[in-house]
Amino acid sequence: MALSGCGDKKSGTTAAWASPDASSSALPGASSSASGGSITESADAPITLSVTPAAGKKDVPVSAEIGVSLTGAKVTAVSLKDSAGKVVGGELRDDGTSWVPASTLKAKTAYAATVTATTSSGLTKTATTTFTTMGAPAKKTGTGLYLFDNRTYGVAMPVVVEFSPGIKKADRAAVEKRMFVETSPAQPGVWSWTSSGTQAYYRAKEHWQTGTTLKVRIAVGGLPTGGGRYGDRDRGATAKIGRDLEMKVDNATKKMTVTQDGKVVRTALVSLGRKSKPSVSGNMVVMDKLADTVFDTTDTDGAAGYQTKIQYAQRVTWSGQYVHSAPWSVGSQGRTNVSHGCVNVSPSNAKWLFDNTLIGDPITVTGTGVKLAYGDGWTPWNVSWAEFLKGSALPVPDSLK
């Protein structure tokens, strides 16, 4: 299959990666070549072909793709080998503009690429090029991926990538093109950036289907990210989506309703943030779970701060709002808001929630009068689909609008 950076696939999965071949990556119906390199043709044919990197080019980023410009034929094979003859696997993008190596190239290494294009009548054209990669960059962009191999997540789990420092608008499209997501069964989605460029989210139009497999590759190792910086490394993970469990908290009733696969499985009385420390309303996601922790606000609140041992805490915002056990507020739960912004529940309800929730489960709070800020937590579900699409640095296919 070919690669699609935006995740729109005709074939039933979003962008997929092929396994390395013993000698080359056979790509039915695609094309490529090498500018400045040698070209051979089986016969006269209306084929125009050029590729990048140009022959002999040095100091090429280790994120390099074999770029293709082709008319009159389709790429049928691509081979990339290092100076020791080791084959590098990879795959052609959906639009045929380049072939993407399956892993970051080695630094200060010579590579040779061979691309074969074939017409519908069987005429072929072959192009070759050689290039040498650069050494280790002086400045790097740190990256993080909030998804781990062999984990099971809730249906609202976005793919979350973090960048430090943030990626400026002018550089986001190039970075976004190197972030690949494959879903099975197919649920095409889109990347969307926070305003600071420190995070990018990937989601589909609706929550993931139960049983979905997410396969992610953030292929930014050695990629120019702006300001003379390069991505620190490639990151990837393959994970599963579990059952559909959702929590809804209503300030008017001071109650949480928990549904699983559409059926109510638990209700719990709650106490939300007091007037001076209101809870936020919005569509949030469980980001972290801590069976035992200490809430310490003395650094930010000084003498007015506090240190309190907490059990069964589930983070839902970066600003410090959690769902957690609050035995001291049981008498107020269902009646009055007394917390510092968190969703207080009884110890028994807190333990049940902790035992039954997954990171990535959605939680919606309504009626507090204070709106959740975008980026305060994993917030891609807190905006409409149309608004979410505006955050993409690449054109969004019409099929996803």
Automatic annotation (TrEMBL):
Pfam families cross-referenced by the UniProt entry: Big_10, YkuD
Q: Name one GO cellular component term.
A: extracellular region
Active-site feature positions: H324, C342
Report the residue ranges that make up the L,D-TPase catalytic domain in this protein. Answer: 245-366
Give the compositionally biased regions (Low complexity).
Answer: 15-39
Q: Which UniProt keywords apply?
A: Acyltransferase, Cell shape, Cell wall biogenesis/degradation, Peptidoglycan synthesis, Transferase
Gene Ontology terms for molecular function: acyltransferase activity; peptidoglycan L,D-transpeptidase activity
Q: Which InterPro entries match?
A: Big_10, LD-transpeptidase, LD_TPept_cat_dom, Transpep_catalytic_dom
Keyword Cell wall biogenesis/degradation present in the record's keywords: the answer is yes
Region of interest called Disordered, as start-end residue ranges on this chain: 1-39
Q: In which pathway does it act?
A: Cell wall biogenesis; peptidoglycan biosynthesis
Tell me, which GO biological process terms does this entry list?
cell wall organization; peptidoglycan-protein cross-linking; regulation of cell shape
PANTHER family tied to this protein:
L,D-TRANSPEPTIDASE (PTHR30582), L,D-TRANSPEPTIDASE YCIB-RELATED (PTHR30582:SF2)
Q: What is this protein called?
A: L,D-TPase catalytic domain-containing protein
Which source organism does the UniProt entry give? Paractinoplanes ferrugineus
